[in-house]
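cron nightly-structures :: item 1 of 1
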Amino acid sequence: MASTDTYLMPATLADALKLADEYGGNCRIIAGGTDVMPNRFQGNDTAPYLIDISRLNELRKLEKKDSSIVIGSLTTLEEVSNNAEILKYFPALAEAANSAATPVIRKSATLGGNLLCENRCIFYNQSEWWREAVGYCLKCNGDICIASGGNKRCFSKFVSDTAAALISMDAYAEIITHEGPSNLKLEDLYTGDGIQPRNIKAGTVIKAIHLPINNSSRTVFKKLRLRKSLDFTSLSTSVTLKSDSLLKIVLCGVDPGPVVLNKRADDNKDDIIATALKKSRIVDNDVFSRGYRREMIRVFLRRSFTELGILK
């Protein structure tokens, strides 16, 4: 952190929102800091004001309320993966949370932080001197997307594992600014733009995630990564089969935003996979090749369909 940075720790949510409104795009809201701080050390995040909301206990609630599970945004990934209610009703979410990072990091990393983690690319998530040597890309004020070989659009990949599971389960986010609260379907939180990947203005806080309980729904989550710990996803898939035979399929790690498909369980599975491949804008910005990740979309979706009993 540069010596000119200002670190702020508000005692209430109202104070945090007031500060966020005052500093706007010049501030970064942090909690666990497991994504923000490495980006700052690499010079990829230079906001001069840090607003630490980790003391706001009102954002830590995790409870069953009526026919939903409400998860406060400051709930850690470890707490999500070990919670009895989540394990009972949404085991795939527990699996997704448990797949992120490492056991030590999951003790600090929050659900809200994982949903808002910055898009990644092997040409962007490097030290300042490395990026200067290879050439700056669109995401760090350059002229082209290096990963795609010169495209004028950024294809940094969206890497939240919990988002894949939550979106497939029809979760919505309760967000709040100084102007007041509102609700947003979780998939609508994302733009699909690699440079500005989130569809919320600066200073917005995710207060909680609401998950409707449907005892008849089943979800299968899968993740591709080089190692079974630490690494960000190269491909995450979450497939939910609902009680009305509708399928909701979400892919992360293969596009600047989550790839979402709404299909029927009796639809032709090859056609579903072809649509998923067409919607996934994969470029060579990962340790695995573009071709391998595309093939793994086929593999993961077929395995998911089989486990859900809709493909023999």
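cron nightly-structures :: done
The chain is about 30% helix and 20% strand.
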